[in-house]
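hey can u run this one w/ glycinamide ribonucleotide bound, need the structure tokens asap thx
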Amino acid sequence: MQKVKTAVLVSGGGTNLQAILDAERSGKITNATIAAVISDRAEAYALRRAEQAGVEAVTIPFKELGRSEFERQLILALQERGIELIVLAGFMRILSADFTSRYPERILNIHPSLIPSFCGEGYYGLKVHRAALDYGVKVTGATVHFVNEVPDGGKIVAQKAVYIHSDDTPESLQKRVMREAEWIIFPEAIESVAGNIRRSK
Ligand code: GAR
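ok here u go:
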């Protein structure tokens, strides 16, 4: 059975993308093949990571195009490449209900908190960790979930908890959540979801 053709959508540094590429290379991901990395920003360092790994790197500039034209071009790019699974790895745009309804249980996202805490519109990147520290929670973590029309509202696939330290800053917490949770559970979740898709083909 053919591997599940997967596209990774990125906006920034791409450490989660790197963890996914490394997991494919080392044989921890066997059910999916990363066929393309698509960024909404040409400057995203994640695109360089894709090129270094020999994976096609594509930019569809959201700011210049606006959401509906961005999504139109994105759908074309996904169709042209026969993409079956979409992975949002630090992708900082919200996709419309029209887009998400085309790919039910075929879009995965990673969010840097334990959903339903510190999630939804406006909660992304360091803001999530700042909110957790401001609230004073002692445990946070990361969540992999399917993407539907509700921001961070789709079915949860995997979660991992991370303890907060009394001297944490948003930056130190972000790094620990990435290292102890995100980079571990995201490749595992992709392998598991792609396995289910593969068996159902
Ligand atoms: C990660 O912490 C990811 O969980 C978060 O942005 C960071 C991207 O880092 N995503 C969100 O906040 C989405 N709402 P990366 O580009 O190094 O993977």
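The helical segments are 15-25, 45-52, 62-65, 67-80, 97-100, 126-135, 170-199. anyway lmk if its weird
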